[in-house]
Design brief:
Length: about 220
C-alpha cells in the first residue's frame, strides 16, 4: 500500500503493500512515531469532498520532524512549492486510481518533471507516496457485522471514525518509517525542505481510499 522514491534523481526504491500485510504491520506499530500533541485544527476529520491540503501538510511535517528530532537530525522546513507538487501528485494518483511515481500526465510524468514544471530549485530530491484509508481501519480488528460505512472495531464494538488530519499523518509517517526506502528519505539530513498532499477517492474499498505524497528537496 505504499511506494517510495528515495533518490538523488537517479535511484528509485518502490514497495507495494497489500491490505492484510499492512494490517499486520500496523497492529504492532504503536509508538512507532514520536508522541506529539497536535493543534486542535489538525484534529478535524478529513473531508472526502474537499480535503484541507494545508492541514495535512502541517500534520505530516509535525510527525516527520518529531521522528528526525528523536534521532538528532535537523528538522525539515515547510516549502509551499513542494506542498503543491505533492498535492498535485496525490490528486493525480487519486484521479487515475494509481499508486505510482510515474503517471501519464503531460509535463508531470516523473518527479523531476513535476519539480521542473513548478520551477522548484533543488540539488537533491525524493518523493514518498502511500495509499491509505479514509476511515481508521488499519491496525485494529474490524467487526464482520459492520454494514455499509458503519464500521465497528471487533475488539471493543466502538464505531470506527474517519481519520483526522493528525491521525492520518501519524499513521502514514509510521508506515514510511517502517519501510527502509521511505525511511531513508524521511530521515536523510540531505533534505531540508518538504511538502505533503493528499487526494481522497470516496469510492475506494472500505468507504474511501486516500492517496498521499511527500516531496523532499535539498
Amino acid at each position: 500500500m505504499g511506494a517510495s522514491m528515495g533518490n538523488d534523481m537517479g535511484t528509485t526504491r518502490a514497495a507495494s503493500w497489500g491490505l492484510i500485510p499492512v494490517l499486520a504491520l500496523l497492529a504492532g506499530m504503536a509508538g512507532a512515531t514520536e508522541t506529539r500533541i497536535p493543534p486542535d485544527d489538525l484534529l478535524a476529520p478529513v473531508s472526502w469532498s474537499a480535503p484541507d491540503q494545508a492541514r495535512f501538510a502541517e500534520a505530516v511535517l509535525l510527525y516527520s520532524n518529531a521522528a528526525r528530532e528523536a534521532r538528532g537530525i535537523p528538522p525539515l522546513r515547510a516549502d509551499p512549492a513542494l506542498a503543491l507538487a505533492a498535492s498535485n501528485q496525490a490528486g493525480n494518483m487519486e484521479a487515475l486510481r494509481t499508486l505510482s511515481h510515474r503517471l501519464p500526465i503531460p509535463g508531470a510524468v516523473t518527479y523531476r518533471d513535476r519539480l521542473r514544471a513548478l520551477g522548484i530549485p533543488y540539488t537533491r530530491a525524493a518523493e514518498n507516496i502511500a495509499l491509505g484509508k479514509l476511515y481508521r481501519l488499519l491496525g485494529r480488528p474490524i467487526s464482520r457485522r459492520s454494514q455499509g460505512c458503519a464500521f465497528t472495531y471487533g475488539d471493543t464494538g466502538a464505531p470506527v471514525p474517519i481519520h483526522s488530519y493528525a491521525s492520518l499523518a501519524q499513521e502514514v509517517v509510521a508506515r514510511w518509517l517502517a519501510s527502509p526506502g521511505h525511511r531513508a528519505s524521511l530521515l536523510s539530513p540531505r533534505y531540508t525542505r518538504v511538502g505533503a498532499g493528499l487526494g481522497v477517492d470516496p469510492t475506494g474499498a472500505g468507504c474511501g481510499d486516500v492517496y498521499m505524497a511527500q516531496a523532499f528537496a535539498g
